[in-house]
């Protein structure tokens, strides 16, 4: 889009020989293992120092448009015929991508040590080898694990605790007494430990009645303000969790909001107060989970999925993007739609819906015809 | 989730006697009013210095699993039989939670006075007793009320005005000339007073025609750029308003965007330019209100509800989570679905929809049978 | 809402004569071109130094409630009869608003030069005439164009490049190696260049199978963690792009995520990794675009629209607010609903849906009658 030289090339990238990369990826090497690799690229964009990612035949076909000397290929590909000098082969290419990209990631640019502009309470404990960026604020009695990297403008509230090897990108907010395990990653602007959204009216509110009656509100409108329920709980997060940019995880009311180990959360996701999320879940962009919902293990929620408050989503549930989960979902269920139902049933309903307008026209014609037919009949004698 | 000692217990919590707590809650005390209470907990988790929250029989049954000496109980519960030494009784337990949690909330850790790293324009006026945290930026001619607490990394634009007793958590952004009443709370990362999203094309655009014709666009595609309409207005917010983490409230084009007193807004909510929201509304997580919409008083919008631009949502409207409100909604209406219609009607439609695929199969079978039957008839002589 | 003096009036506003404003707007002037104008207002709110915006007869009718001496009027309006001393007329009033508001916008209050509290890497290049606000952090090898204005608390990662005349509001985060063209605007809290959300399991996951089978998952639940695919790519943005408050644009995996020139993005929008967005698009509040989707030119997505990963949305597509786009959309298509289909077809479906419950009742009655009728028939001999 710009004619400027490729900024990515000017940034310091770790270099590898193709043989070293093969070892890092657990890949089978064919050809010249001494080729120097400094990055990865799509086949058509790859220069001679990039490994081209060509794990499908249609990608490999585009190698001729680029200048790659080495590629990650699908099994059976003829690397010599593709004009390469070396190639790597892996049984599950998508999984190899994880190793490859980790090896080639230059990582965030947070200088080792504590930047002089950081504001750190003297009672805070910072682990060995941690890197604290400029203008970071760390409150009283905070404990940060070894080798943590905390980028510019992060703030960490009093009594918060983060395990070893954490990476907090710029502007992350951790509230007071938040506790997080090892290898935590937070993308820029993530907020963990804001207050829960919990209010109550002096007398029963129209919303409470609406929920009891499914829509029949008879309480006359009345001015009664919302009184705040404070969040005495905090947030507890396991090991190997990642939270996306500008996502928000609220503290609990009495106990902590909980996120289990291995769970990954995308950008702009909202997790309400008291929510419990299990292990190894995946919450895609803009998912919203209302207060006190319980999410099992290995649950996958597509983008913009909404989960009602106080419901239970079982282990291994998968919900398609945009689904609204209003009611408890049993383990293993694949959900879709609003309200979310079994995906197969929802797809059948969508199909039927497409045919509904024509159906209505046919039926009305049939009814009209029937009425027309029956009118003379009233005068008949049979 | 961690074996580390409970961080919440190490943080300074205000202590109360059970008798003092009874007075703060307007609760009836039974038993030992001298018990020392430093926090609240769920029955199974409560230690001897915590008041257990056991306002329903099923919660009270779990008191035996914990070590609580005092509890907040439902009327009629036998506190002695539950092994307690004291108990509090309230007519509306959910409401008592508000008082209880306020009493026990240690509050944010913002040191009194102005932190030396804060960057404050000399023309700004800071009220008595205000606490301004580290690395806060306050612009020219800003006026901040008495006892305001402004956490780390907040920025407040020129000419903004905040009433007394405000609490701005870390990283809140207030734009220029924003005006806010008393007792305002903003969660981390909230943005109040970003520019409105308002653009215009030199000639009528396809969108304008689409809106006029409900979908029939005949204007040929044409490259014409969007020209920006600047936001000369700002944002006006009443008293006792709370805005959630990473929510965004845009400034108005000519006049101010307005949010009435007592309105509570959850995380990741978007309020567009020129919107007017009334008093005592509740907007749950990820609600989006497009430009120039008008929302009445006491309106409750569930999570992820969308409100179209330029429409009017009447007083006391309640919309279920995920609803899309495309058209004006009369006062008191309970809404659900996309497009949102009366909840009762929507629930009936959902039920019918579940039966639609089977209905279609029956109808097609019937039509086939009828056709089959009518074929021989054509040859009949009757 | 407050009785305090109008903060907007105390802020320094550039002043114009009505004649100068006419020239800036390309408007036809009638009456006194020497009138002093310091701002714009709605007719009923306008003081004598404000130009009233009264481009429709119903707005002009409210001029009597205010004190305006000059107005922007619809063609044919009689400005003398409306009590004015001068008036401007334009062929397309909505477009004139763009020029008018730009002329009257006091702009952000970022002092020229580099604030002493900014933390700027010595290898960064800052263009002539740039204004860098307090507590800004700029990384190594960053290049910032001439006349850029960067507000408080922004952070810009190593190797990022921004063209001339950029405006970054408070707290914007630009990741490493992000490249942006001329005249870029980012509202507060926008995050450009967070890591993509891309994970893989060692073996085929239930989600992969669900996608292949449309909902039939037979893989038994199994604990297998998500392994992270790192984002080696960055984000490339063209000229004249605007990104809204707290929106997030993720970096690409191998190549860059791309946003074309002239595209405008509202608040809380999520753009996933590898996404390609064309020129002059408009993405309204809370739109979410999943990874690797491709969006054409001049596409308009209403609020809360979701776009599935890996699909293609053609040029000039318009999608109504709340639509979920699960499948490729051809150029020029106007979409609505979940799943999104042609708007006209969707509106017809909605209408049919409203009639469905009654239809079902009629059909059941008819079937019951038919069964009732057919019962004796079984005994008939004809």
How is this structure best described in words?
The structure is a homotrimer of 382-residue chains. Chain A has 382 residues and is an alpha/beta fold. Among the domains of chain A are: 7-104, 3-Layer(aba) Sandwich (Udp-n-acetylmuramoylalanyl-d-glutamate--2,6- Diaminopimelate Ligase, Chain: A, domain 1), CATH 3.40.1390.10; 197-230, no CATH class. Chain A is built from six helices and 40 strands. In chain A, the strands form six sheets. A twelve-stranded mixed sheet of chain A has the order 8-11-14-17-20-25-28-31-34-37-39-40, covered by helices on one side. The termini of chain A are far apart. The model of chain A is unreliable at 1-12 and 376-382 (pLDDT under 50).
Quick overview:
The structure is a homotrimer of 382-residue chains. Chain A has 382 residues and is of the alpha/beta class. In chain A, 19% of the residues lie in helices and 25% in strands.
């Amino acid at each position: 889009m710009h004619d400027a030289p490729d900024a990515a090339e000017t940034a310091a990238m770790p270099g590898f020989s193709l043989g070293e990369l093969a070892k890092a990826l657990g890949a089978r090497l064919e050809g010249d293992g001494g080729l120097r690799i400094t990055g990865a690229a799509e086949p058509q964009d790859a220069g001679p120092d990039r490994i081209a990612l060509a794990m499908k035949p249609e990608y490999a076909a585009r190698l001729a448009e680029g200048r790659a000397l080495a590629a990650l290929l699908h099994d059976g590909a003829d690397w010599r015929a593709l004009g390469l000098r070396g190639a790597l082969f892996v049984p599950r290419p998508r999984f190899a991508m994880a190793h490859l990209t980790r090896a080639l990631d230059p990582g965030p640019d947070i200088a080792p040590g504590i930047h002089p502009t950081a504001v750190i309470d003297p009672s805070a404990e910072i682990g060995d080898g941690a890197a604290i960026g400029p203008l970071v604020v760390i409150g009283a009695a905070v404990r940060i694990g070894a080798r943590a990297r905390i980028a510019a403008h992060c703030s960490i509230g009093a009594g918060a605790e983060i395990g070893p090897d954490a990476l907090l990108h710029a502007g992350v907010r951790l509230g007071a007494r938040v506790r997080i395990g090892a290898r935590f990653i937070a993308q820029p602007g993530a907020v963990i430990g804001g207050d829960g959204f919990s209010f109550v009216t002096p007398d029963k509110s129209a919303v409470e009645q609406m929920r009891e009656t499914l829509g029949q509100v008879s309480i006359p409108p009345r001015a009664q303000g919302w009184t705040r329920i404070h969040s005495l709980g905090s947030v507890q997060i396991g090991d190997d969790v990642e939270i996306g940019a500008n996502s928000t995880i609220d503290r609990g009311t009495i106990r902590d909001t909980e996120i289990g180990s291995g769970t990954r959360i995308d950008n702009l996701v909202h997790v309400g107060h008291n929510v419990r999320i299990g292990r190894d879940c995946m919450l895609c962009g803009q998912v919203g989970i209302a207060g006190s919902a319980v999410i099992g293990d290995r649950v996958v929620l597509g983008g913009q999925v909404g989960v009602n408050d106080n419901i239970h989503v079982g282990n291994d549930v998968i919900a398609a993007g945009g689904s609204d989960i209003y009611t408890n979902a049993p383990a293993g269920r694949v959900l879709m739609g609003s309200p979310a139902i079994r995906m197969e049933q929802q797809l059948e309903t969508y199909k039927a819906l497409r045919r509904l307008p024509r159906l209505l026209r046919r039926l009305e014609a049939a009814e009209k015809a029937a009425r027309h037919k029956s009118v003379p009949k009233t005068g008949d004698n049979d």
